[in-house]
Amino acid sequence: MKKDLLGFAGMTPADFQDIWRRAARLKQLLKEGRDHASLKGKTLGMIFDKSSTRTRISFEVGMYQMGGIALFLNSRDTQIGRGETLADSARMMSCYLNGIMIRTFSQESVEELARYAAIPVINGLTDLLHPCQILADLFTIQEKKGSYEGVRVAYIGDGNNVANSWIEAAAHLPFELALACPEGYDPDARILAAAGRVKLCRDPFEAARNADVLYTDVWTSMGQEAESQERMKIFRNYQINQALLGVAKKDAIVMHCLPAHRGEEITADVIDGPQSVVVEEAENRLHVQKAVLEILL
Ligand code: CP
Ligand code: NVA
User: Fold this and answer.
1) Catalytic residues
2) Looking at ligand 1, which atom is closest to the CA of residue 132?
3) Ligand 1 centroid to 54 CA: how many Å?
4) Span 102-117, mean pLDDT?
5) How confident is the model at residue 145 (pLDDT cuts 50, 70, 90)?
6) DSSP string of 49-116, one letter each residue
7) Domains along the chain with CATH numbers
8) What is the pLDDT of residues 7-62, one digit of tens each?
9) What is the per-residue pLDDT for 75?
C-alpha cells in the first residue's frame, strides 16, 4: 500500500529514525561526491499554491541527485487553477508520476489529493502543518546535540503551521517543547490536546529559560498578509533577541525555518550570530527530503 506524508499522525519513533538514518547516509554520499541514484527514472510532481525557495529547490535538486526528475507545477498554470477537481487531478497525475509534493492552503485539500492519488503525497506546507520542515529541524538538532532526547525546545511566536508540526512531533518523540504565543494566536487546539505533554505559555522568557533550542517563525504567514500591521503590534514582544538568548542554556542553538524578518521575530545579531544554525538547518531540508522520497517513492 502506498504511504503518504501528510503530517506525523500514525508515525512511530522507528519511522522517524529510518528517515534520519537515511538522511545522514545520503548527506555523507553527497559530500563525498558518490553516486546515489536510488530514484532513477522516477518522477515527482510539485504542486505549488504558495511561494517557496527552500522547499522547491530542495525537492527539485534532491530528485535530480537521486536520478529522477521533479516537475514544478504552479497551480495557476495547470487546470487545477481553472477548477479541475483535486480528485480528477490526483487520478490523472497518478498515471504519469511516482509521487506528488503539494504546498497549498488547506490541509483538507492535501488529504483529498492523497485519498484519490494512487501514488504517495507529501505535504510541502499547508496552513495547518509543515512536516518536512520539522523533520529537517529535528535532524539538525540530532547533529548538533547528539540526540533530541530530553532536549528542551522553546518555540517563540505564532501558533502556526510550523508550531503545529512541532507539537505533532513532540507527541511522538521524547523531547520537551514549550511554546510562547500571544493570546488569540495559539496553536491548533486539537493538535495541542492530542499531544498532551507540551507546555503553552504567554511569556517568551518562561518558555526560553534553560532551553537548548530557541526557535521562531514569521509573525505573518503566507495568506495572512492583510493582518500584517495588526500582527506587528501583537507580536512585538515575541522576538528572539540577546535578552531572550540570555536566559537559554549557554550552548543553546537558534533555529528558524526561514524566510526570516530581521528586526521582527528575530534580531539580526542573533540570526547572524554564532549560536544560529539556520543555514545548516535549511541545507538539511535537502538531505531529509531525499530520505523521505527514497522511502515513499
Ligand atoms: N522553510 C521553508 O519551507 O521555506 P520556503 O518557503 O522557502 O520553501
Ligand atoms: N509559517 C510560514 C512558514 C514558511 C516556511 C508560512 O506559512 O508562511
Assistant:
1) 103, 130, 133, 217, 257, 285
2) 3
3) 5
4) 98
5) very high
6) SS--SHHHHHHHHHHHHTT-EEEEEEGGGSGGGGT--HHHHHHHHHHH-SEEEEE-S-HHHHHHHHHH
7) 13-130+285-296 (3.40.50.1370), 133-282 (3.40.50.1370)
8) 999 999 999 999 999 999 999 999 999 999 999 999 999 999 999 999 999 999 99
9) 87
The three three-digit cell numbers of residue 39, written as one number: 530514484
Question: Residue 191 corresponds to which cell in the numbers above?
Answer: 493538535
Q: Which cell numbers in the block locate residue 163?
A: 508550531
Give the Å distance between the CA of 75 and the centre of ligand 1.
17
The closest-lying atom of ligand 2 relative to the alpha carbon of residue 217 is 1
163, pLDDT greater than 90: yes
Protein residues whose CB sits closer than 6 Å to any atom of ligand 1 = 52-55, 125, 133, 257-258
Q: What is the pTM of this model?
A: 0.98
Mean pLDDT, residues 183-205 taken together:
97
Q: How far is ligand 1, taken at its centre, from the CA of residue 56, in Å?
A: 8
Task: Determine the atom of ligand 2 nearest the C-alpha atom of 223.
Answer: 8
Residue 138 · residue 24 · CB < 8 Å: no
**Can you name the residues that pair with 176 across neighbouring β-strands?**
152
Task: Give the residue, out of 257, 279, 281, with the most ligand 1 atoms within 8 A of its beta carbon, to mutate for a pocket test.
Answer: 257
Q: Residue range 81-100: average pLDDT? A: 97
